[in-house]
Amino acid sequence: MNETNKLPANSTANHNEVITGSFAVKVGLAQMLKGGVIMDVVTAEQARIAEEAGACAVMALERVPADIRKDGGVARMSDPRMIKEIIEAVTIPVMAKARIGHFVESQILQALGVDYIDESEVLTPADEEHHINKHKFTVPFVCGARDLGEALRRISEGAAMIRTKGEAGTGDIVEAVRHARTVNGAIRQLRSMDEDELFAFAKALRAPYPLVKLTAEMGRLPVVNFAAGGVATPADAALMMQLGVDGVFVGSGIFKSGNPEKRARAIVMAVTHYSDAQILAEISEDLGEPMVGINVDTLHEAEKMAARGW
Amino acid sequence: MLRQLGAQTVQVRKPEQLAGLDGLIIPGGESTTMGLVAERWGLVEPLRTWVHAGKPTWGTCAGMILLAARATGQKAGGQPLIGGLDVTVNRNYFGRQSDSFETLLSVPALGEPRIRAVFIRAPAIVEVGAAVEILATVPGRGEEVIAAVRQDAILATAFHPELTDDLRWHAYFLDLWHRR
Lengths: 310, 180
Known about the structure:
By secondary structure, chain A is α/β, with parallel strands linked by helices. Helix content of chain A is 42%, strand content 13%.
């Protein structure tokens, strides 16, 4: 891959040379999260519950997407104190969200020591044209994407991990399914193309040719790809895994449900055993009320978070 | 990567999948999460039996933590360990993601050239028992700390050979099986 700062194996660098923030190091953490569940938490206490349930990381934020939807107004980066409390409370990686294009929020999050930044459409965008230049940071970034072109544009800006956008805060999985199928469908198309066709396809995708070629060669996105936006049940999580994602983000789905602890554990198990229907049946039993949810069809275009980002 | 060296591989999620295997790799991930999931699926005891039977086992990063007899810096309430490797591991010795790094390691057992190693929120071995062979060290916080060890058929690396394309660690592990 296009690893920046990559050390050649036969380099004459001395033993003490240590490189932080290289693309290999950024992508490496995402690789370690594969097969795992990342949960939205708004307090240190929720973070402990998530860790105990088996989350591989937590996303620290002030309000879960369902509440952002309900409250309206401008949604911003969370209070650093809350993020620090969550970092203190758990041993697993802590992620936090910055607004699209808001590189200063990202600088602050990096200074706080978060392990990953989500440049997220769930918050109100700060720049309607430019995403953050993520190469400038040592902390890795995850970004949302609805299709292959969007995913590769984010990777070219330095994203080390991709997730579907889905439609956050709805509990409706339909958009996440659409985005995962759209990305995978385009990759299947790519694999059958010759080089001449790849150039034209890259243009149509509005994505850099080298990344399009790399994706065709690898037969998958060049970085880890998670599902996000609308996952509410173990079956939703397993559905996304069977559609080929590497892991799952769960936002409002856990702590907006009747029994967060039990549901969180069940979703973790569903991601581990996503193709075993017998186990899925057992763990889906008696989980209490799921989050109420909003049918995506009833949302106005302007209310859809997935349309943010370019 | 092991397949490139002629080995067959399977993913182990349940205890019954351990039957018939010659060697086991416990890869990187979050050791807290892996310990919890292994415990929930009743994998911890079968893994202990496996390791104590002297079967070839390789733990990288989180896998190394799980194989350690002793670990510091665990989550509140501790985490389940498999044990078997007579070392003390300091669980995020190298700090958070912003401190994650790559470097070149001198590993006499693997020969020249030095081998690229990627450390992600990595642990370090801070103490070893007499039966443990030290394979590689790396500069830590003002001291040299241990990054790779072998004890009989157990191999443990604080970094991730699964993230680089050098096959020498994998070949070394397969050799442990041939020599057992």
